[in-house]
């Protein structure tokens, strides 16, 4: 199990959010991919920030109340997200998860986004490899 790396459990099929994207489009992307947040990147896939469901909820409440129109991801994103390497051991990442830590981590290799890893993916892998738990079958973002 120690040899299992982030690259083995990361999702690389979900497109990140591009800078300048309207928040309503961000919400559609989050809901459509069943993720709680996504990295925000520039045209070269450099991670500039991170946008979560919570960020969107707050911004939409505020903009709706003040009738300010549709904000962009640039107005709302967290600008210093934690990122992980694809070579990081899943066990090491799992040991650092806790209260106040992200649920989704951008995976960055040579300065560019290559995927995301979620707490759900880590939990699923730990359950399968560590305890032999048969995972329930359900529709996920992997089946698009």
Topology record:
Blueprint: H1 6-9, E1 17-18, H2 23-33, E2 37-41, E3 47-52, H3 53-66, H4 73-76, H5 90-96, E4 104-109, E5 112-118, H6 119-131
Parallel strand pairs: 1-2
Antiparallel strand pairs: 2-3, 4-5
Share of residues in helices: 25-40%
The main sheet orders its strands as 1-2-3
The multimeric state of the shown protein is single chain
Biggest sheet descriptor: 3 strands, mixed
CATH homologous superfamily title: CBS-domain
For the secondary structure, the number of strands is 5
Question: Mind explaining what this structure looks like?
Answer:
The chain is α+β, with helices and mostly antiparallel strands and 144 residues long. The chain has one domain: CBS-domain, CATH 3.10.580. Helix content is 37%, strand content 18%. The chain has 6 helices and 5 strands, in the order H-E-H-E-E-H-H-H-E-E-H. The strands form 2 sheets. Strands 1-2-3 form a 3-stranded mixed beta sheet. Strands 4-5 form a two-stranded antiparallel ribbon. The chain starts with 5 loop residues before the first helix and ends in a 13-residue tail after the last helix. The mean pLDDT is 87. This is CBS domain-containing protein. It comes from Marinobacter santoriniensis NKSG1. Pfam families: CBS.
């Amino acid at each position: 199990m120690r040899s299992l790396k982030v690259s083995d459990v990361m999702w690389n099929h979900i497109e990140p959010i591009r800078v300048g994207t309207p928040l309503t489009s961000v919400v559609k992307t989050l809901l459509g991919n069943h993720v709680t947040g996504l990295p925000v990147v520039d045209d070269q896939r450099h991670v500039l920030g991170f946008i979560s469901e919570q960020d969107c909820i707050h911004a939409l409440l505020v903009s709706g109340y003040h009738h300010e129109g549709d904000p962009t991801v640039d107005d709302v994103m967290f600008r210093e997200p934690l990122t992980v390497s694809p070579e990081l051991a899943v066990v090491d990442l799992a040991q650092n998860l806790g209260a106040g830590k992200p649920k989704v981590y951008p995976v960055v290799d040579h300065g560019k986004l290559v995927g995301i890893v979620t707490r759900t993916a880590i939990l699923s892998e730990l359950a399968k490899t560590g305890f032999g738990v048969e995972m329930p079958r359900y529709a996920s973002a992997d089946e698009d």
